[in-house]
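Obj.: predict assembly geometry.
Materials: sequence records (below).
Method: joint structure prediction, all chains together.
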Amino acid sequence: MAISRRTIALVAGCIVLALVPPIAALTNQPFYVDLFRRMMIFALAAVSLDLILGYGGMVSFGHAAYLGIGAYAVGIPAFHGVESGWLQWGLAIVASALTALVIGAISLRTSGVSFIMITLAFAQMLYYLGISLETYGGDNGMRLAGRSRFGGLVDLREPTVFYYVVLGILILFLALGSRLVASRFGMVVRAAKANEPRARAIGFSPLRYKLTAFVIAGSGGGLAGALLANQTEYLTPDFMHWTRSGEIMFMVILGGMGTLFGPVIGAVALLLLEDVLSALTTHWQIILGPILVLVVLFAKRGLFGLLVGAEARDG
Amino acid sequence: MAEPLLSIRGLSKRFGGLLASDRIDLDVTRGETHAIIGPNGAGKTTLIGQLAGDLRPDAGSIRFADQDVTRLGAPHRAQRGLARSFQVTSIFRDFTALDNVVLAVQAHRGSSFRFWRPARAEPALRGPARVALESVGLGARADVRAANLAHGEQRQLEIAMALATEPRLLLLDEPVAGMGLEESQRMVRFLSTLKRRITIVLVEHDMDAVFTLADRISVMVYGRIIATATPPEIRGNDEVRRAYLGEDQT
Amino acid sequence: MSISLALVLEQTLNGLQYGVMLFLMAAGLTLVFGIMNLVNLAHGSLYMVGAYLATAFTERTGSFVLGVALALPATLLVGVLVEVVALRTLYERDHLDQVLATFGLILFFNELIAIVWGRAAIFTSVPQFLSGHFRVLPGLPYPTYRAAIILVGLAVAILLWVLVTHTRLGMRIRAGASNRTMIAALGVDIRFLYTLVFGLGAALAGLAGAMAGPLYSVQPGMGEAILIQVFVVIVIGGIGSIRGAIVGAIVVGMADTLGRAFLKPMLATVISPPAADKAGPALASMSIYLLMAAVLFFRPEGLFPARSRS
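Observations (raw structure tokens):
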């Protein structure tokens, strides 16, 4: 059996990511563990967005809201002395899922331009809600009392341990996501995106499937948020700012919409780009902005497509 | 006599100043092949839209398979056994032909809230899908991307998708539109094999197809049905002649 | 704190004034959505450009009126430039592409402004001849400047109404909002119409920004905060509809202003003051989004959609 380019790319990617901590230790650059861990966390957020954006055709411009919910689901309990990772991360997922359910139920009644604006508006609403939480830092946010605890299982205070936990979660999410998009459910969501009138004509009511996908994506975002709070050990409402949503969207596009693995590359690429540019000048956004415009206009297929070729791209 | 499979009463639809459907009454009996013809602008597309569930009528009712479906959307009607093909070919272009039909089968076989097993590998879905594809003559093209199929093949694919849902009624919107002579004859031959087993309602301009397939023909002009009769009777009907050919011809 | 009638009236007028700002932004944006089917996130940047240019021109010329009068055509020019250079290619693209590309433009503009004027907020004062209060009603003094804004808004609304209902251009705009392909088929010069509409929207946004200077702080990123509320206005009002923009703007302006002013004291009558202290501001900032959710629940196309339902 021939091994496809796609499989090679995936395995190679996993190996590269797994080797970062040892290499960082060898070269005495612990900063890289931190950097790549951050990339993987955003990769998780981007992959979860790809489920609805790439596969479902739902242009949700409010995905960062779930990052924020997940982060505060860790931060608020920690503030009150509840440090159990099980509880915090569980809360992150459940709270994001419920929020996605409500937002999705309302937003999915519309489509096109309205849908984009509404998801944006709801995310901004949550942003303002975060700002109004005076007890938890309001505008300025707050320090995380301590990283999530998992009893004797893992100690997230160890950078390398935390790194592999994140890597594990990312790989698990990608594996589950792969099954999901090929499953009956995934096929309906993709069909609704491809040709909704046709999907309806054969007997599918797309709304319930889209909403479910929306909730799953939101939960993924929430988990990413919980990880992010642990990563930065500081959480602010800025996690939910709509420019964050735009950034995550860009990761999906840059990496390749509807590929699941592309957004991982997209996250790495965009964060690297931001890092490099911000080292050049404090006004790096004036360079990033036009780059983003050019990517949209000319390179929409995404990096993953370039890597593995067009046919291998579609699962 | 058994209740008609499809029963339309007083169906009306207005678009601004235009009365596209004007108190339409129609009965389609089980096993019948019923053609709807009429000059352009007669309101056939609007009628199909209301039958399929894409358009809401302003007045009147539609009864299908012993149920009032007037307020029900297309998915519900499909679940009740109404399958359709579109005037402009509408398929899932980026999926293979087989995947297209698998989706149609999936819609009627169990819940689609399954998140783990790959749908395309399910024998319960692939089997019937292959059968449907073979029956329309696309068996060899199962793994071709739908967008890469020839126009005529794509229209066959639509029929396969419709059949895969095991429908009671097949609603065909200009099934041979855009097909060459040989292709359309093949399609008509195939559709004849479906007669009796499935009730068919078709809208068509191709008179050869209509007169070959139809048990009864309804003629629409300006949103109204002016005649419903057997093909020979329609052929000899003066009013129909006038509607199609104009006043100064016999 | 007791709520007096004078306070309610004052806040109502404030709501109207804020509604005017929203309307000026929404009118341009909804036309661009409706006619060109373009999602333009960078509309807020034009508002920002208008504010900065007005501030700069006012400083140069020493006259506020002159400053605003110069800022308008200048912003229009910037808008036209952006349209010709960057946005033309986007008309054919899907909404996702438009969203992302205009998002890139926002980053660009915010940073450009920061480079030229710095990141710190600039505070401009209300011009002398519009400062102070005047008596709207006995016992109700109201800031003259804010009243002027309301009047300007009224004037613009009337002018737009005349333009849309009584001129050839307006007819084309209405036709375009309702069926884009049709007017192209009828031979109307689409390119020019698009650029014109976009320029008009830019000028309106610039006007809003120019008038906003003395009231709100002028800083990079100021466009985005108001832009999202403008989205809410359009969603509530209905895409492509000026009438919807007016109604939506007033509704949102009122809801936001009155909510901020009165939600806390109103809540305090029902629940304990400390709880109201926390819940009040939170609910106030959420209020317009909750309103949007409510409208959408019953009318997903908005209150006055320009396109007929199919």
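Conclusions so far: The two ends of chain C are 51 Å apart (CA to CA).
To do: check interface contacts against the pulldown list.
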